[in-house]
Amino acid sequence: MRKIVIAGNWKMHKTQGEALTFLQGFLGQLSETPQDREVVLCVPFTALSALSKNLHGSRVMLGAQNIHWEDSGAYTGEVSGSMLEEFGIRYVVVGHSERRQLFGETDQTVNKRLMAAQRHALTPILCVGETKEQRDRGEAEDIISKQLMQALVNIDQSNLVIAYEPIWAIGTGDTCETTEANRIIGVIRQQLDNQSVSIQYGGSVKPGNIDEIMAQSDIDGVLVGGASLEPDSFSRIANFVQ
Ligand code: PGA
Fold first, then answer.
1. Which residues have CB under 6 Å of ligand 1?
2. CA-based nearest residue to 225, from 9, 44, 61, 12
3. Assigned CATH topology for domain 10-238
4. Alpha carbon distance 224, 170 (integer Å)
5. Nearest-CA residue for atom 7 of ligand 1
6. Residue 11 CA: which ligand 1 atom is closest?
7. Domain segments of the chain: what residues?
8. pLDDT tens digits, one per residue of 6-52
9. How many whole angstroms from 210 Cα to the centroid of ligand 1?
10. What is the number of the ligand 1 atom nearest to the C-alpha of 169?
């Protein structure tokens, strides 16, 4: 069974105080959310402590946005799986295009981070996707295929979520056609050994397009940036209408 995973990626937004204010407006709006939907907030490291205390007993799962492959060591500025474990988190975003484009993340480091996440019993959300130029050159499928092949070496596909995020659709308001996102997600699924991996779509997901996105046969959830920052918009997304 493929699980429905609705995840917010706050990126570098919200102080602890702002995160708690968000929760006050958000949790009450989930009372009708069907139980078979996993609702996840992937937040800055600095907000994990406050949120983990305040989400205790709620249905919302907590996630981080990165993980180092070593458990400790001389890696200034990095955070390890043992450190994350203390917050009771369940998910970690790995290989987001912003990490790849701005911070030198490669398919090899993505693979190491995925392994570390699984070693610490976290579910990695592996992000893959093509740039506008790659799409225009007709290379989208090859690029995604290569990202998957290299990232998934020695990875346990029974504890994995994949997010298809066309880079040109991230933060631009320019959503990928839902049928095209569905098609690419089908292509991704063909490359997996385990057919119960949940595959999300990400890129300018908002209240106005969530119902259409979730109506697609192969899309199992969404990874949401901008629209996850406001309680009303993210709860509308979690409460998508089938
Ligand atoms: P967006 O970001 O929803 O703001 O386009 C998505 C993402 O980067 O995961």
1. 9, 165, 170-171, 202-205, 223-227
2. 9
3. TIM Barrel (3.20.20)
4. 9
5. 225
6. 8
7. 10-238
8. 999 999 999 999 999 999 999 999 999 999 999 999 999 999 999 99
9. 13
10. 5
